[in-house]
Amino acid sequence: MTPETTFAPAASWRYxxxxxxxxxHDFGNLLLEFKFAVDRSDxxxxxxxxxxxxxxxxxxxxxxxxx
Length: 67
Fold this sequence. Notes:
Helix content is 64%, strand content 0%.
């Protein structure tokens, strides 16, 4: 594999989030990674970021409860 096709996500994205500040930090990092992936047209990273953003959104909604 070439360096352009390899990727290693930040480990913190895979662990249960325990605070609002950590969630905000991880969310910001994920958005930044998503932006870079779009700029590079890196489909694998864009797919990963989309899935993680969806997961974070679902997890956050479960924490806050139904409206």
